[in-house]
């Protein structure tokens, strides 16, 4: 083995040089020290990057091993229980963990053998040269100043004391400069050796650390690990070939579907090529749902809808499963015209085509519960199409039902109505007779709640065709009825029907009316409903046309004596209105109105209850205010009476004083003279007597 020999070192000689050569050589050594400092700083930064990178590699390797160990704890939605993959990753985790330990050992060796020597040279040796240079410069400056003072001493006027002090100063400064110079020159000579050591020792430590790391790696990478890696490589190649095969198959399937689905891309397919299937009981597709954001404004939200049994389900983009949009058992569906959409139909408000209408009609008739739903749907398809026709007016319905109601016995109607519920015939007849007036026609259209032969009562209900602002603001100069009301709540409702009832003291009246109206609608295929805005205030309930803002009906709040929501279907609610006149012979009659809302039945009833409470408190406050005013008037009247009484007493005292004054001269006259009272005095005397009489009476 060859031995590495360090070449000769340039040294700074102390004695053999004259002063000029000494200072010139000192400049060369200082320039060399500066170059060494700059170069070593750059080398230190490079080695620091190696050390930091090794630490980062060790930490990243350890984190990778940790994540591979936690793979079996992960729950991937499509992963399943892949035990082979878990065991393979566990084996990789062990190997990488061992490599992480090797990297940690390498990081420690680099810190001790590479970073420590170069850091010592940078922080200790180079800083020592800089410190000695500064001290030597200060000593040289002090020596030059002392020599300058000594050279200015005068020989003609010598002062022993001054000369001694200057001489002592020169001695001290020269000694200090010489000692500092020797240490400084020695450090410069030593720096040449330390430079070589600082360059070679870190590199030696780096190479030894790497050799040790490779030896540890070769010990870990045995034949068993090589066999494991070979098997994993083969498995990866098999998975890649399988993926390429599946991709090729999927590409071919996509091309076939694109060719077959090309006619379906047209929004309105040709019915001759693609006939409409009206016998469906299940349907799925994208629909645009209209959501109202104001009185007349609305937005359309596109979602995926599908039928599931008797429910209409919706599924937003990104959701794993769908949610219930609405219950379409016994629902009403009809085709509607919209200005901003085509193929619209209305359940609540949805957009679709004829397939949706037919499918939901079939589901609403509960055909999906039968054994052969498509065959039954084909037989009742004509009835499903007629379900979207408009309902007859109340006058026609009233005239058509009146003879039938008079001709048939009451028990017939009771049994037909009771067959729709779950109660027995006797209980249904008892409920009908006690709650609903016999032979009562059902009103399906919104008209005035009073009879046409009673025009005077229409004014009491405010049945004019007046345009109403639902927010309580009046556009004209006159003040609205509800402008002073502190409660204004607006709801979207659909009128189902109304009928006269016999009782208004139990919520069962509303439940029974709901049952009969829904049964009548189902029997007569009446599915069209009039949508209105219900405005609840502290004075009244108003039905307002959504388009024209004209008030259709006004129900005074004091006349609303009962209100309730359906026990199961919270969209249905109703209230009983007590009015004057009616079909009964008494002066008062009760009419029950039934509505359907957008899941706001309880809110509407709570709002009506709140309005009645506010109206009650307002009435109590008004009565208390009137009572207070009456007490103030009585008190004021009593004050006036008391003032009047005091005035009378004052007048009586004045009259008594005048009478006493007039009687004294008559008694003193000896010649029979008398005093004549004037007419005013006599009147005052009469008033005084009357006052005395009143006082005596009091």
From TrEMBL:
Question: Known CDD domains for this protein?
Answer: BAR-PH_APPL, BAR_APPL1, PTB_APPL
Biological process (GO) annotations held by this record are: cellular response to growth factor stimulus; insulin receptor signaling pathway; positive regulation of biosynthetic process; positive regulation of transport
Does the UniProt entry include the keyword rRNA-binding?
A: no
Biased composition range(s): Basic and acidic residues: 625-656, 689-698
Membrane association type:
Peripheral membrane protein
Record's keyword terms, sorted: Cell cycle, Cell projection, Coiled coil, Cytoplasm, Cytoplasmic vesicle, Endosome, Membrane, Nucleus, Phosphoprotein
This entry's Gene Ontology molecular function terms read: identical protein binding; protein kinase B binding
Kindly list the places in or outside the cell where this protein is found, as annotated in its UniProt entry. Answer: Cell projection; Cytoplasmic vesicle, Phagosome; Early endosome membrane; Nucleus
The record, for Gene3D superfamilies, names: Arfaptin homology (AH) domain/BAR domain (1.20.1270.60), Pleckstrin-homology domain (PH domain)/Phosphotyrosine-binding domain (PTB) (2.30.29.30)
Q: Does the keyword Cell division apply?
A: no
Where do the record's region annotations for Disordered lie? 387-423, 457-481, 625-698
UniProt xrefs under SUPFAM superfamilies: BAR/IMD domain-like (SSF103657), PH domain-like (SSF50729)
Pfam families reported for this sequence: BAR_3, PID
A cellular component annotation (GO) from this entry: phagocytic vesicle
Q: Which InterPro entries match?
A: AH/BAR_dom_sf, BAR_dom, DP13A/B, DP13A_BAR, PH-like_dom_sf, PH_DP13A/B, PTB/PI_dom, PTB_APPL
Give start and end of each PID domain. 491-627
What spans are recorded as compositionally biased (Polar residues)?
663-682
SMART domains on file = PTB
Listed name of the protein: DCC-interacting protein 13-alpha
Supply the source organism for this entry. Canis lupus dingo
Q: What is the lineage of its organism?
A: Eukaryota, Metazoa, Chordata, Craniata, Vertebrata
């Amino acid at each position: 083995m060859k031995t590495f020999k360090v070449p000769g070192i340039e040294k700074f000689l102390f004695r053999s040089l004259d002063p000029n050569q000494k200072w010139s050589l000192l400049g060369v050594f200082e320039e060399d020290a500066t170059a060494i400092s700059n170069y070593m700083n750059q080398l230190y930064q490079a080695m620091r990057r190696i050390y930091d990178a090794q630490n980062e590699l060790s930490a990243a390797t350890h984190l990778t091993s940790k994540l591979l160990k936690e793979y079996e704890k992960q729950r991937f939605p499509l992963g399943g229980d892949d035990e082979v993959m878990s065991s393979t990753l566990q084996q990789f985790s062990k190997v990488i963990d061992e490599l992480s330990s090797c990297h940690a050992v390498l990081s420690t060796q680099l810190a001790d053998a590479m970073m420590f020597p170069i850091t010592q040279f940078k922080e200790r040796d180079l800083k020592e040269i800089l410190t000695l240079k500064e001290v030597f410069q200060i000593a040289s400056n002090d020596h030059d100043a002392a020599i300058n003072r000594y050279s200015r001493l005068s020989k003609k006027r010598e002062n022993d004391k001054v000369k001694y002090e200057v001489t002592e100063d020169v001695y001290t400064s020269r000694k200090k400069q010489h000692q500092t110079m020797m240490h400084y020159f020695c450090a410069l000579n030593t720096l040449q050796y330390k430079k070589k050591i600082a360059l070679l020792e870190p590199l030696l430590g780096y190479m030894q650390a790497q050799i040790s790391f490779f030896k540890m790696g070769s010990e870990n990478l045995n034949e068993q690990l090589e066999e494991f890696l070979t098997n994993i490589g083969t498995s990866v190649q098999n998975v890649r070939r399988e993926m390429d095969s599946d991709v090729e198959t999927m590409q071919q399937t996509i091309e076939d579907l694109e060719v077959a689905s090309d006619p379906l891309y047209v929004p309105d397919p040709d019915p001759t090529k693609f006939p409409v299937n009206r016998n469906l009981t299940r349907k799925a597709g994208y629909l645009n749902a209209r959501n109202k954001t104001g009185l007349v404004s609305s937005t359309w939200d596109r979602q995926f809808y599908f039928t599931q049994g008797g429910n209409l389900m919706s599924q937003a983009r990104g959701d794993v499963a769908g949610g219930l949009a609405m219950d379409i058992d016994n629902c009403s569906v009809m085709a509607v015209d919209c200005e901003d959409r085509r193929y619209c139909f209305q359940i609540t408000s949805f957009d679709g085509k004829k397939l949706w209408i037919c499918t939901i009609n079939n589901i609403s008739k509960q055909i999906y519960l039968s054994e052969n739903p498509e065959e039954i749907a084909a037989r009742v398809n004509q009835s499903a199409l007629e379900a979207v026709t408009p309902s007859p007016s109340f006058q026609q319905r009233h005239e058509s039902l009146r003879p039938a109601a008079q001709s048939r016995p009451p028990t017939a109607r009771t049994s037909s109505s009771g067959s729709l519920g779950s109660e027995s015939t006797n209980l249904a007849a008892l409920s009908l007779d006690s709650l609903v007036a016999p032979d009562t026609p059902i009103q399906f259209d919104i008209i005035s709640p009073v009879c046409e032969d009673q025009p005077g009562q229409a004014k009491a209900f405010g049945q004019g065709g007046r345009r109403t602002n639902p927010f309580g603001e009046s556009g004209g100069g006159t003040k609205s009825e509800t402008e002073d009301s502190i409660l204004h709540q607006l709801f979207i409702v659909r009128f189902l029907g109304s009928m006269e009832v016999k009782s208004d003291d139990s919520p069962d009246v509303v439940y029974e009316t709901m049952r009969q109206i829904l049964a009548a609608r189902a029997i007569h295929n009446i599915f069209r409903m009039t949508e209105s805005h219900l405005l609840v205030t502290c004075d009244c309930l108003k039905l307002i046309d959504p388009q024209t803002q004209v008030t259709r009906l006004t129900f005074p709040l004091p006349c609303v004596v009962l209100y309730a929501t359906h026990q199961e279907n919270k969209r249905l609610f109703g209230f009983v209105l007590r009015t004057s006149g009616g079909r009964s012979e008494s002066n008062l009659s009760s009419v029950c109105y039934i509505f359907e809302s957008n899941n706001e039945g309880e809110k509407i009833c709570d709002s009506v209850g709140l309005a009645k409470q506010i109206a009650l408190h307002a009435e109590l406050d008004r009565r208390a205010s009137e009572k207070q005013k009456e007490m103030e008037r009585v008190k004021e009247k009593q004050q006036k009476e008391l003032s009047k009484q005091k005035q009378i007493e004052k007048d009586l005292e004045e009259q008594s004083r005048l009478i006493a004054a007039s009687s004294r001269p008559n008694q003193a006259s000896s010649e029979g003279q008398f005093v004549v009272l004037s007419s005013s005095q006599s009147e005052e005397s009469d008033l005084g007597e009357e006052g005395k009489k009143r006082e005596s009476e009091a």
